[in-house]
């Protein structure tokens, strides 16, 4: 945020509130001005008003001075025009207006205090520290004010004490922030906050070569998120999700399990081989995060950042973990739930549910944080894909897979733990994520979980439908064989009697 402060300080020093601040991208055309102000201003006045409002936002004076610019030249009121202009600027150029307003208020207070002190000095009732030090009299022999300490002196000392305390606190906070930045690996943006995981907490300071790669991996040093439309932020990732779904449908419909002799590990169960490969891929990316030269690549394609999205990160973030505890938790849940589901629905359907759920969770997170304009959030981890696996486990026909609520069948150890019906367990997990999304007590991407649940539930419905179709075909086949036997007995019965 240091560059942001520098920009604001630059505009404050210029003192050009009447002219305003040039907008990023240049002067707006008449069509844009008409759209923003509903044809209430011409192109010159509209651009002037936007520049003035942007200056007020950057300087922090937005809430401290009246928004009165065109009281006589428009049919609309000044407040209405300012509201329309601010709405456009906040959408196109998001920033922390409250922080700038606080800084502006503090500057005004300091300015008023300085003027009060100067007035007191002219009246001869106050002497500054500099004047006291330059006095020829010995400070140690000064008996103090003749009539005691004045109220102004007490106010000055209290203000100076608060200033020193504030400066010391800010210095401690800056030092703590620098130490935290030195301990953590590079994240997707300089202000990345809530995500499905937090950064590594390596307790040593970065050497120079690591800092070099960290700088190269930073996606942007601009104080604001890139100006992109909603379509440009979401549409490429949406198209990638549709391509992933289409590829999974094609893969599921054409996949044929290989013969045991043709498998790479013929003595290893298919479910164990599939889930082991997924865990190995996640572990490989986990190790890659420990290699600084790979940070630029990982920051673009293994972290989902709404502020500067890359479509490939929709799938890449599913295999990305930075903390060991996060990796172990997700992979443990994958091994626990995925093995039994894989045995029930096969490799093709299992991989389709995993990949589609992970990508759908990423898209849900991207859409939510884009609509809420939380561009500094970053998200990564396989939790969305694991949520989809959990939803499929809960909803796929229990008679074949999980045995939820089915009587008269032998249950395994997993079924003995899950005593509730599958839909009840899934509902409880969804409710927990909804509550977590509202409370925000943990840095967890609950939106990605909910997107994974939805994709896994949809996949379970498709799998149940296909299983039902196979049952019908199997029943028809068995009925046909039985009918052929009956007809054969009727046809061959007399011949058999004659032979006897």
Q: Per the principal axes of the C-alpha atoms, what is the gross shape?
A: elongated
The counted number of beta strands is 0
Average residue-wise pLDDT: 76
Instruction: Note the gap between the termini.
Output: 102 Å
Helix share, percent: 55-70%
Question: How many distinct helices?
Answer: 18
Low-confidence stretches: 1-15, 131-147, 186-203, 399-409, 495-500
**CA gyration radius, whole angstroms:** 34 Å
The fraction of residues in strands falls at under 5%
Structural class: mainly alpha
- Biggest sheet overview: none
Note the run of SSEs as H and E. Answer: HHHHHHHHHHHHHHHHHH
Structure, explained:
With 500 residues, the chain is mainly α. The protein is built from 18 helices and no strands. Helices cover 64% and strands 0% of the residues. It is elongated, with a radius of gyration of 34 Å.
Highlighted features:
single chain, 500 residues, 64% helix
In short:
The protein has 18 helices and no strands. The chain has 500 residues and is mainly alpha-helical.
Helix/strand layout:
Blueprint: H1 2-14, H2 30-37, H3 43-59, H4 78-92, H5 97-123, H6 129-134, H7 151-183, H8 208-217, H9 230-254, H10 270-288, H11 295-301, H12 313-316, H13 324-345, H14 347-371, H15 383-395, H16 413-417, H17 422-439, H18 446-499
